[in-house]
Specification:
Elements (H helix, E strand, L loop, with lengths): L10 H20 L2 H4 L6 H9 L6 H16 L3 H13 L2 H17 L5 H9 L5 H14 L4 H13 L1
Helix pairs in contact: 1-4, 3-4, 6-9, 8-9
Length: about 160
């Protein structure tokens, strides 16, 4: 009869885990609320994170972040992984959409008129007249950015 025990975590492992949790807590405290709203958090944790930006005193902030860390210790590992991913990469979908919109803007400002037709076919809800008008203005203005920026916003909304 052999009694095999699982190895207990070393002191260094515990310290490393505590440092990682503290770093995650501090990053979550400064993360935009709109980004945190996309994650399904327990009510007490959401309330504590929403309250974090309002705590201005250094000592009170440290105490509040310790409270948030204690609440984080109670959540499951999947949620912790999701929160770490959110802190590391933010909202990737927004970045991808922005890059797509930039590529479409550059394609539409090119000389080929087929790109506009292709964009309208792929995104039927777009205001075609407004899109054509902005493309003409952006081509005319050259370096002036107002029409180019407006064109980008129309494209991003359509995506």
């Amino acid at each position: 009869m052999s009694t095999e025990r699982e190895p207990r975590p070393s002191i260094r492992d515990k310290q490393r885990a505590a440092r990682d949790l503290r770093a995650l807590t501090e990053a979550l405290a400064v993360l935009p609320r709109a980004l945190l709203a996309k994650v399904d958090l327990p009510p007490r944790l959401r309330e504590a994170l929403d309250h974090a930006p309002t705590v201005t005193s250094h000592v009170a902030r440290r105490r509040h972040l310790k409270h948030v860390a204690a609440l984080l210790r109670m959540v499951d590992d999947e949620l912790l992984d999701e929160l770490r991913e959110l802190v590391e990469h933010g909202d990737r979908r927004g970045q991808v959409r922005t890059h797509q919109a930039e590529r479409w803007r550059d394609r539409l400002l090119g000389e080929d008129g087929q790109e506009l037709t292709q964009f309208v076919e792929e995104h039927p809800g777009v205001d075609v007249q407004r899109l054509r008008q902005l493309v003409r203005q952006a081509r005319r203005e050259g370096d002036q950015r107002r029409a180019v920026r407006a064109l980008f916003e129309v494209i991003r909304d359509a995506l």
